[in-house]
Amino acid sequence: xxxxxxxxxxxxxxxxxxxxxxxxxxxxxxxxxxxxxxxxxxxxxxxxxxxxxxxxxxxxxxxxxxxxxxxxxxxxxxxxxxxxxxxxxxxxxxxxxxxxxxxxxxxxxxxxxxxxxxxxxxxxxxxxxxxxxxxxxxxxxxxxxxxxxxxxxxxxxxxxxxxxxxxxxxxxxxxxxxxxxxxxxxxxxxxxxxxxxxxxxxxxxxxxxxxxxxxxxxxxxxxxxxxxxxxxxxxxxxxxxxxxxxxxxxxxxxxxxxxxxxxxxxxxxxxxxxxxxxxxxxxxxxxxxxxxxxxxxxxxxxxxxxxxxxxxxxxxxxxxxxxxxx
Length: 326
Hints:
40% of the residues lie in helices and 14% in strands.
Protein backbone atom coordinates (compact mmCIF):
# COMPACT_ATOMS: atom_id res chain seq x y z
CA UNK A 1 0.00 0.00 0.00
CA UNK A 2 1.12 3.53 -0.73
CA UNK A 3 0.26 6.45 1.55
CA UNK A 4 -0.22 10.10 0.69
CA UNK A 5 -0.64 13.21 2.79
CA UNK A 6 -4.14 14.62 2.93
CA UNK A 7 -3.45 17.88 1.13
CA UNK A 8 -0.95 19.91 3.14
CA UNK A 9 -1.95 18.33 6.42
CA UNK A 10 0.35 15.90 8.20
CA UNK A 11 -2.26 13.13 8.06
CA UNK A 12 -1.37 10.20 5.82
CA UNK A 13 -4.11 8.16 4.18
CA UNK A 14 -3.89 4.97 2.16
CA UNK A 15 -3.94 5.48 -1.60
CA UNK A 16 -6.97 3.18 -1.79
CA UNK A 17 -9.69 3.47 0.83
CA UNK A 18 -13.02 1.80 1.52
CA UNK A 19 -16.39 3.56 1.43
CA UNK A 20 -19.87 2.57 2.54
CA UNK A 21 -22.29 4.38 0.21
CA UNK A 22 -25.09 2.07 -1.03
CA UNK A 23 -23.50 -1.04 0.51
CA UNK A 24 -23.54 -0.75 4.31
CA UNK A 25 -26.89 -1.75 5.86
CA UNK A 26 -28.45 -2.22 2.40
CA UNK A 27 -26.13 -4.99 1.14
CA UNK A 28 -23.55 -5.36 3.90
CA UNK A 29 -24.43 -6.18 7.51
CA UNK A 30 -22.15 -5.79 10.52
CA UNK A 31 -20.60 -9.24 10.17
CA UNK A 32 -19.78 -8.74 6.49
CA UNK A 33 -18.51 -5.22 7.19
CA UNK A 34 -16.23 -6.57 9.90
CA UNK A 35 -14.81 -9.16 7.49
CA UNK A 36 -14.15 -6.59 4.77
CA UNK A 37 -12.75 -3.95 7.11
CA UNK A 38 -10.33 -6.53 8.51
CA UNK A 39 -9.23 -7.60 5.01
CA UNK A 40 -8.79 -3.98 3.96
CA UNK A 41 -6.72 -3.16 7.04
CA UNK A 42 -4.58 -6.25 6.45
CA UNK A 43 -3.89 -4.89 2.95
CA UNK A 44 -2.81 -1.52 4.37
CA UNK A 45 -6.05 0.46 4.00
CA UNK A 46 -6.39 2.96 6.86
CA UNK A 47 -9.23 5.25 5.70
CA UNK A 48 -12.91 4.31 5.84
CA UNK A 49 -15.48 6.72 4.44
CA UNK A 50 -19.06 7.25 5.58
CA UNK A 51 -21.82 9.87 5.70
CA UNK A 52 -24.78 10.70 7.90
CA UNK A 53 -27.15 10.31 4.95
CA UNK A 54 -25.97 6.83 3.91
CA UNK A 55 -28.85 4.45 4.70
CA UNK A 56 -30.34 7.21 6.90
CA UNK A 57 -27.62 6.83 9.52
CA UNK A 58 -27.60 3.04 9.54
CA UNK A 59 -24.35 2.93 7.56
CA UNK A 60 -22.59 4.75 10.40
CA UNK A 61 -24.07 2.29 12.89
CA UNK A 62 -22.85 -0.74 10.90
CA UNK A 63 -19.35 0.68 10.48
CA UNK A 64 -19.13 1.66 14.14
CA UNK A 65 -20.22 -1.80 15.31
CA UNK A 66 -17.72 -3.49 12.99
CA UNK A 67 -14.84 -1.29 14.12
CA UNK A 68 -15.63 -1.90 17.79
CA UNK A 69 -15.69 -5.65 17.18
CA UNK A 70 -12.27 -5.46 15.53
CA UNK A 71 -10.89 -3.52 18.54
CA UNK A 72 -8.33 -1.60 16.50
CA UNK A 73 -6.12 0.99 18.21
CA UNK A 74 -7.70 4.38 17.47
CA UNK A 75 -4.49 5.72 15.95
CA UNK A 76 -4.50 2.99 13.31
CA UNK A 77 -7.54 4.10 11.32
CA UNK A 78 -9.17 7.21 9.88
CA UNK A 79 -12.94 7.52 9.53
CA UNK A 80 -15.09 10.20 7.97
CA UNK A 81 -18.64 11.39 7.82
CA UNK A 82 -20.49 14.09 5.89
CA UNK A 83 -23.30 16.52 6.66
CA UNK A 84 -25.94 18.28 4.56
CA UNK A 85 -29.02 16.19 3.74
CA UNK A 86 -29.89 15.25 7.31
CA UNK A 87 -31.96 12.29 8.46
CA UNK A 88 -35.44 13.74 8.80
CA UNK A 89 -36.96 14.27 5.33
CA UNK A 90 -40.53 14.80 6.50
CA UNK A 91 -42.47 17.10 8.77
CA UNK A 92 -41.34 20.34 10.37
CA UNK A 93 -37.60 19.81 10.03
CA UNK A 94 -36.45 22.78 7.99
CA UNK A 95 -33.26 23.11 10.05
CA UNK A 96 -32.43 19.41 9.80
CA UNK A 97 -32.22 18.83 6.05
CA UNK A 98 -30.48 20.32 3.01
CA UNK A 99 -28.57 22.84 5.08
CA UNK A 100 -25.17 23.75 6.47
CA UNK A 101 -26.43 26.19 9.08
CA UNK A 102 -24.87 26.22 12.51
CA UNK A 103 -27.87 24.72 14.33
CA UNK A 104 -27.89 21.66 12.09
CA UNK A 105 -24.12 21.12 11.96
CA UNK A 106 -23.52 21.33 15.71
CA UNK A 107 -26.21 18.69 16.33
CA UNK A 108 -25.28 16.55 13.33
CA UNK A 109 -21.75 15.89 14.61
CA UNK A 110 -23.15 14.70 17.94
CA UNK A 111 -25.54 12.36 16.11
CA UNK A 112 -22.74 10.79 14.08
CA UNK A 113 -20.53 10.36 17.13
CA UNK A 114 -23.40 8.60 18.87
CA UNK A 115 -24.15 6.26 15.98
CA UNK A 116 -20.50 5.35 15.45
CA UNK A 117 -19.74 5.25 19.20
CA UNK A 118 -16.59 7.32 18.72
CA UNK A 119 -15.08 10.13 20.77
CA UNK A 120 -14.13 12.01 17.61
CA UNK A 121 -14.35 11.65 13.84
CA UNK A 122 -11.16 12.22 11.87
CA UNK A 123 -12.60 13.87 8.75
CA UNK A 124 -15.89 15.74 8.47
CA UNK A 125 -17.20 17.01 5.14
CA UNK A 126 -19.85 19.48 4.07
CA UNK A 127 -21.58 16.98 1.76
CA UNK A 128 -22.89 19.62 -0.66
CA UNK A 129 -22.81 23.43 -0.85
CA UNK A 130 -25.65 25.36 0.79
CA UNK A 131 -26.51 28.57 -1.10
CA UNK A 132 -28.92 29.60 1.65
CA UNK A 133 -26.36 29.75 4.46
CA UNK A 134 -23.51 32.28 4.52
CA UNK A 135 -20.21 30.48 4.00
CA UNK A 136 -18.76 32.22 7.05
CA UNK A 137 -21.46 30.65 9.28
CA UNK A 138 -20.58 27.19 7.94
CA UNK A 139 -16.83 27.77 8.27
CA UNK A 140 -17.18 28.86 11.89
CA UNK A 141 -19.35 25.83 12.77
CA UNK A 142 -16.95 23.37 11.13
CA UNK A 143 -13.97 25.04 12.78
CA UNK A 144 -15.72 24.85 16.15
CA UNK A 145 -16.18 21.07 15.74
CA UNK A 146 -12.41 20.79 15.59
CA UNK A 147 -11.81 23.22 18.46
CA UNK A 148 -14.24 21.18 20.59
CA UNK A 149 -12.34 17.97 19.81
CA UNK A 150 -15.23 16.33 17.97
CA UNK A 151 -13.39 16.27 14.62
CA UNK A 152 -9.79 16.59 13.48
CA UNK A 153 -10.01 17.96 9.93
CA UNK A 154 -12.81 19.36 7.81
CA UNK A 155 -13.47 19.73 4.12
CA UNK A 156 -16.08 19.87 1.41
CA UNK A 157 -17.72 17.59 -1.15
CA UNK A 158 -18.78 18.72 -4.62
CA UNK A 159 -18.21 22.39 -3.87
CA UNK A 160 -17.15 24.81 -6.58
CA UNK A 161 -13.55 25.98 -6.60
CA UNK A 162 -14.75 29.52 -5.91
CA UNK A 163 -16.68 28.46 -2.77
CA UNK A 164 -13.77 26.36 -1.48
CA UNK A 165 -11.43 29.29 -1.93
CA UNK A 166 -13.91 31.61 -0.22
CA UNK A 167 -14.19 29.24 2.78
CA UNK A 168 -10.40 28.98 3.01
CA UNK A 169 -9.98 32.76 2.85
CA UNK A 170 -12.59 33.32 5.58
CA UNK A 171 -10.82 30.81 7.83
CA UNK A 172 -7.45 32.42 7.11
CA UNK A 173 -8.76 35.90 7.84
CA UNK A 174 -10.38 34.92 11.14
CA UNK A 175 -7.71 32.42 12.28
CA UNK A 176 -10.13 29.49 12.07
CA UNK A 177 -9.47 25.87 11.10
CA UNK A 178 -9.25 25.78 7.31
CA UNK A 179 -10.80 23.22 4.94
CA UNK A 180 -8.04 20.85 3.85
CA UNK A 181 -9.80 18.37 1.54
CA UNK A 182 -12.53 18.05 -1.06
CA UNK A 183 -14.41 14.88 -2.01
CA UNK A 184 -15.35 15.05 -5.72
CA UNK A 185 -16.54 12.45 -8.16
CA UNK A 186 -13.61 11.50 -10.40
CA UNK A 187 -13.33 8.79 -13.01
CA UNK A 188 -12.47 8.29 -16.67
CA UNK A 189 -15.76 9.82 -17.82
CA UNK A 190 -15.92 12.61 -15.20
CA UNK A 191 -12.77 14.75 -15.13
CA UNK A 192 -13.33 18.47 -15.61
CA UNK A 193 -13.71 19.53 -12.00
CA UNK A 194 -10.63 17.68 -10.71
CA UNK A 195 -8.36 18.35 -13.66
CA UNK A 196 -9.38 21.91 -14.56
CA UNK A 197 -11.63 23.72 -12.08
CA UNK A 198 -9.69 22.75 -8.96
CA UNK A 199 -6.25 23.04 -10.58
CA UNK A 200 -5.39 26.46 -9.05
CA UNK A 201 -6.23 25.19 -5.54
CA UNK A 202 -3.66 22.40 -5.35
CA UNK A 203 -0.76 24.84 -5.09
CA UNK A 204 -2.47 27.92 -3.66
CA UNK A 205 -4.16 26.29 -0.64
CA UNK A 206 -2.80 22.74 -0.75
CA UNK A 207 -6.18 21.11 -1.41
CA UNK A 208 -6.25 17.33 -0.97
CA UNK A 209 -8.76 15.02 -2.67
CA UNK A 210 -10.62 11.97 -1.38
CA UNK A 211 -12.27 11.01 -4.67
CA UNK A 212 -15.39 8.89 -5.04
CA UNK A 213 -16.90 6.65 -7.74
CA UNK A 214 -13.72 5.56 -9.58
CA UNK A 215 -15.84 2.93 -11.35
CA UNK A 216 -18.66 5.33 -12.29
CA UNK A 217 -21.09 3.38 -10.04
CA UNK A 218 -20.09 0.15 -11.78
CA UNK A 219 -20.14 1.27 -15.42
CA UNK A 220 -16.36 0.83 -15.57
CA UNK A 221 -16.55 -2.79 -14.48
CA UNK A 222 -18.15 -3.76 -17.78
CA UNK A 223 -21.12 -5.44 -16.08
CA UNK A 224 -23.67 -3.09 -17.69
CA UNK A 225 -22.70 -3.70 -21.30
CA UNK A 226 -25.66 -6.07 -21.68
CA UNK A 227 -28.16 -4.13 -19.56
CA UNK A 228 -28.75 -3.97 -15.82
CA UNK A 229 -27.98 -7.34 -14.19
CA UNK A 230 -29.99 -8.54 -11.19
CA UNK A 231 -28.33 -7.75 -7.89
CA UNK A 232 -26.21 -4.94 -9.32
CA UNK A 233 -26.20 -1.39 -7.96
CA UNK A 234 -28.38 -0.21 -10.84
CA UNK A 235 -31.04 -2.77 -9.91
CA UNK A 236 -31.31 -1.68 -6.27
CA UNK A 237 -34.41 0.12 -5.05
CA UNK A 238 -33.82 3.86 -5.06
CA UNK A 239 -30.88 3.66 -7.47
CA UNK A 240 -32.94 4.02 -10.64
CA UNK A 241 -31.48 7.51 -11.18
CA UNK A 242 -28.21 5.77 -12.13
CA UNK A 243 -29.66 3.55 -14.87
CA UNK A 244 -29.48 6.00 -17.78
CA UNK A 245 -25.79 6.59 -17.19
CA UNK A 246 -24.99 2.94 -16.55
CA UNK A 247 -26.61 1.83 -19.79
CA UNK A 248 -25.21 4.65 -21.96
CA UNK A 249 -24.39 3.00 -25.29
CA UNK A 250 -21.33 5.07 -26.22
CA UNK A 251 -19.74 4.72 -22.81
CA UNK A 252 -20.37 0.98 -22.67
CA UNK A 253 -18.77 0.66 -26.11
CA UNK A 254 -15.76 2.54 -24.77
CA UNK A 255 -15.63 0.17 -21.78
CA UNK A 256 -15.52 -2.67 -24.27
CA UNK A 257 -12.42 -1.10 -25.83
CA UNK A 258 -10.89 -0.57 -22.38
CA UNK A 259 -11.26 -4.30 -21.70
CA UNK A 260 -8.76 -4.88 -24.51
CA UNK A 261 -6.32 -2.40 -22.96
CA UNK A 262 -6.76 -4.01 -19.56
CA UNK A 263 -6.11 -7.45 -21.01
CA UNK A 264 -2.85 -6.19 -22.51
CA UNK A 265 -1.89 -4.82 -19.07
CA UNK A 266 -2.84 -8.08 -17.36
CA UNK A 267 -5.62 -6.63 -15.20
CA UNK A 268 -9.39 -6.15 -15.17
CA UNK A 269 -11.02 -3.02 -16.57
CA UNK A 270 -12.10 -2.13 -13.01
CA UNK A 271 -8.51 -2.31 -11.78
CA UNK A 272 -7.43 -0.20 -14.73
CA UNK A 273 -10.05 2.45 -13.94
CA UNK A 274 -9.10 2.63 -10.24
CA UNK A 275 -5.39 2.76 -11.06
CA UNK A 276 -6.04 5.59 -13.53
CA UNK A 277 -7.55 7.71 -10.75
CA UNK A 278 -4.79 6.79 -8.29
CA UNK A 279 -2.05 7.83 -10.69
CA UNK A 280 -3.15 11.48 -10.35
CA UNK A 281 -0.73 13.01 -7.80
CA UNK A 282 -3.39 15.44 -6.55
CA UNK A 283 -5.56 12.54 -5.35
CA UNK A 284 -4.82 11.74 -1.70
CA UNK A 285 -6.99 8.61 -1.67
CA UNK A 286 -9.36 6.79 -4.01
CA UNK A 287 -12.53 5.68 -2.23
CA UNK A 288 -13.60 2.25 -3.45
CA UNK A 289 -16.74 0.31 -2.59
CA UNK A 290 -17.50 -3.38 -2.28
CA UNK A 291 -20.43 -5.54 -1.30
CA UNK A 292 -18.36 -8.76 -1.22
CA UNK A 293 -14.89 -9.74 -0.10
CA UNK A 294 -13.86 -10.82 -3.59
CA UNK A 295 -14.82 -7.39 -4.95
CA UNK A 296 -12.70 -5.72 -2.30
CA UNK A 297 -9.69 -7.88 -3.11
CA UNK A 298 -10.16 -7.28 -6.82
CA UNK A 299 -10.23 -3.52 -6.29
CA UNK A 300 -7.09 -3.65 -4.16
CA UNK A 301 -5.35 -5.35 -7.08
CA UNK A 302 -5.37 -1.95 -8.80
CA UNK A 303 -2.32 -1.04 -6.72
CA UNK A 304 -0.23 -3.30 -8.95
CA UNK A 305 -1.40 -1.44 -12.06
CA UNK A 306 -0.65 2.17 -11.04
CA UNK A 307 3.05 2.08 -11.93
CA UNK A 308 2.29 0.35 -15.26
CA UNK A 309 0.38 3.38 -16.53
CA UNK A 310 3.17 4.99 -18.52
CA UNK A 311 2.46 7.96 -20.82
CA UNK A 312 1.94 5.60 -23.76
CA UNK A 313 -0.71 3.59 -21.88
CA UNK A 314 -2.38 6.78 -20.65
CA UNK A 315 -2.53 8.13 -24.19
CA UNK A 316 -4.19 4.91 -25.34
CA UNK A 317 -6.76 5.15 -22.54
CA UNK A 318 -7.36 8.84 -23.26
CA UNK A 319 -8.04 8.20 -26.91
CA UNK A 320 -10.92 5.92 -25.89
CA UNK A 321 -12.42 7.85 -22.98
CA UNK A 322 -11.64 11.56 -23.24
CA UNK A 323 -14.12 12.25 -26.07
CA UNK A 324 -16.90 11.05 -23.74
CA UNK A 325 -15.65 12.70 -20.57
CA UNK A 326 -17.27 15.65 -18.82
